[in-house]
Amino acid sequence: MRVALVDDHELFRQGLRELLTERGFEVVGEASSGEEAVALAGKEIPDVLLMDISMPGMGGIEAARRIRAETPHTRIVMLTVSADERDVDEAILAGASGYLLKDAPIDAIVSGSAAAARGEALLSPAIAGNLLARIGASEPAGEPVPNFAVRLTDREREVLELMAAGRDNTQIAQELFISAQTVKNHVSNILAKLEVENRIQAAVYAVRRGLV
After folding, report:
1. Can you give the CATH number for the domain in which 163 is found?
2. Contact at 8 Å (CB) between 83 and 127?
3. Residue 92: is its pLDDT beyond 90?
4. What is the helix (H) or strand (E) element at residue 2, kind and residue range?
5. Percentages helix, strand, coil for the chain, rounded to the nearest 5?
6. Contact by Cβ (8 Å): 48, 77
7. Residues 14 and 78 in one domain
8. Residues 23-59: pLDDT tens digits?
9. Quick one: 112 and 158 in the same domain?
């Protein structure tokens, strides 16, 4: 997997580069600003770009918008210290495929990057819980559930609940004692039945409809 790193702290990039390289990732470039990130993405077209939000000049969210428009193949994962609700919402709207906190274990960063490369979307559990709690509190009760959502199997509902809690496929497989491939199949079925594009949208949909 080809990964690019964007952060204005060189020591953080260096440490992350070493950890990712040890786990078999190919780090194809680094940048310290949003402007450099846009240029880097266009030149290297990495599978995943790990990017901070707060940087001098163009920030990560604006850079994400431009990269998604100019280099749609590249999946963007925000890796930041900010758990601010506005940053989370704007990052998702900008097209980020993941939102992870810098204090996350390296395994979570690795799995988040891998999930993004597969076209999945992943949030840190704390971020996911807060986002869905806000959505649940803001949505009116009793919104009707379409027939296709009702057709979710019991197992698909279990997988959906864990997706909404911020679990990745490997974690879901471990908790439900099934294979990762089986989880992947369930996720694909869920997205198709709910008519959504990614895991974050599925989780938001599930909360709004009272499915989880």
Report:
1. 1.10.10.10
2. yes
3. no
4. strand 2-6
5. 55, 15, 30
6. yes
7. yes
8. 999 999 999 999 999 999 999 999 999 999 999 889 9
9. no
Higher pLDDT, 83 or 54: 54
Token duo for residue 56: 């001098």
Is the pLDDT at 134 greater than 90? The verdict is no
- What residues does 75 pair with on adjacent strands? 48
Asked if residue 121 has pLDDT above 70, the reply is yes
Number of CB atoms found within 10 A of residue 51's CB: 27
Where are the alpha helices (H) located in 30-142, listed in sequence order? 34-44, 60-70, 85-93, 106-117, 125-138
Residue 130 falls inside a structural domain: no
Domain that includes residue 60, residue range: 2-123
Backbone angles phi, psi at 73, to 5 degrees: -65, -30
102 and 173 share one domain: no
Structure tokens at 60: 């990560």
C-alpha–C-alpha distance, residues 8 and 4, integer Å = 13
Residue 197 neighbours by CB under 8 Å, 6+ apart: 191
- Using one digit for the tens of pLDDT, what is the confidence trace for 150-195? 588 999 999 998 888 778 888 899 999 999 899 999 999 998 888 8
For residues 180-195, b (16+ Cβ closer than 10 Å) or e, as one string? eeebbebbebbbebbe
User: What b/e sequence results for 19-47 when a residue is b if at least 16 CB atoms lie within 10 Å of its CB, and e otherwise?
Assistant: ebeeeebebbbbbbbbbbbbebbeebebb
